[in-house]
Amino acid sequence: MPATEASPRSRKLDRPPVERLYGRRRGHALRPRQARLLAHTLPRVRLSETAAQSPFAAFPCPVRELWLEVGFGSGEHTAELVARHPEVGIIAAEVFENGIVSFLARYVPEGEEETAALPPNLVLWPDDARALLRLLPEASISRLFLLFPDPWPKARHARRRFVHPALIPLIARVMAPRGEWRIASDDPTYQAWVEETLAGQDRFDIVSVSAIRPEGWPGTRYEAKALREGRTPRYWTLRRR
Prior knowledge:
Elements: H1 8-14, H2 32-45, H3 49-52, E1 65-70, H4 76-84, E2 88-93, H5 97-104, E3 122-125, H6 129-135, E4 141-147, H7 168-174, E5 175-185, H8 188-199, E6 204-210, H9 221-228, E7 234-240
Parallel strand pairs: 1-2, 1-4, 2-3, 4-5
Antiparallel strand pairs: 5-7, 6-7
């Protein structure tokens, strides 16, 4: 290949993201209890488009800063953040309905889907995280978490990845100065993609890259599964310039 010709991977980096970054919204059919959580509990903690434009006011208690988790899965990491940092407003984004109801079930006894108290420092965004990034005020997020996202390993799916050159400016816009972005992945293809994407941007400094989960990072079931199956996760800590 001539030196002036872009590599196949580099050509993929130049392609814009697709309209939708996620796959299915639902796996198996929801059971009655799960359907009630979706119908009655989610609306009580859902962040509206209007509230997203003034997110500090979206919480019923005062919060000193905002953290955002993109793709929280079943929510074990988010739940740890909520419990450990009551002074921080946690915005948790996830489109997969089965994961959302699994997370909400942590807080809601059966039969109390309409009335059970929910953590005052938590709101959910059950939609495309990019739409949320466009609504949030500039420099409003102090920490962003992207932990073990769907790697979209096939080449034709590369544009579905949240870590993408075209999204870096959008992510950087909402990050506070010196704000921290944590990324973790156990997929070698995604790891290589992250490395190349980060090398081509100038909005974040790479503070650390590690094969061992840094202190203070709550674990996830995806990480545990990766370790059981012999895969080596990689953890990035980035800092907004």
